[in-house]
Amino acid sequence: MSPLSKKGDTLAIKVPLSSGCYYLIENRQPIGFDEVLPDSGILILKVNPRAQEGSGTVRVINANSNYPYFSKAVFRLDRRRSNIFVDKKNDVAVIPLWSEGENQNVLVTTPEKSNNALESALLIQELLVLYPEPRSKKQDHLIKKCIRAFKNFEFKTCCQLTKDILKEKKTAL
Fold first, then answer.
1. Range of 24's domain?
2. Which residue of 119, 148, 168, 171 is most buried, as measured by CB atoms within 10 A?
3. 104 in any annotated domain
4. Does residue 165 sit in the same domain as residue 141?
5. Burial class (CB in 10 A: 0-12, 13-18, 19+), 145
């Protein structure tokens, strides 16, 4: 997803719920009209279009309620307690993924699949930190292979590939 304050192909993701409500997922970055944001990452809003105006039409899902005034309301893969949103009642899980420039990847899945997906995403993030750009052709090929497995929802394969690469790297050190 592109940052909300910029023009891009995908600015938000709408996840319909059976109740007529929906989640709206946005990539909020300190750019343009969002320049004064206290934090950046994936913001999840629960929208109830049937609620009367002023009485909860839109509710921010706070990723970390320990911080006042929604100062850490966004979800980010690099934050241990704020790297997944799970709504078991509506069978929805949202995982912020790695960034590609200003764009932010996100996975919408089910709570049942979310643990394997989160583990895979965290391992890919570790690979991206370990092998920053520019990378060798071999490193780039291996990372793309892991990401391809992830995008095909082959989370166990992705985990194994990533763990093998990380093990090889640690052995080389």
1. 1-98
2. 119
3. no
4. yes
5. middle
Span 46-86, pLDDT tens digits: 999 988 887 779 989 999 888 777 788 999 999 988 999 99
CB 25 within 8 A of CB 46: no
Summarised one tens digit per residue, pLDDT across range 30-42 is 888 888 787 889 9
d(CA 43, CA 73): 7
Into how many domains does the chain fold?
A: 2
- The secondary structure of residue 72, as a DSSP letter, is T
**164 is written with which tokens?**
């093998």
Q: Please tell me the total number of residues recorded for the chain in this structure.
A: 173
CA separation for the pair 19, 3 (Å, rounded): 28
The model's pTM is 0.90
Q: What amino acid is encoded at 16 in this protein? A: P
Beta carbons within 8 Å of 17's beta carbon, 6+ residues apart: 23, 90, 92
Which of 98, 131, 147 is where one domain is finished? 98
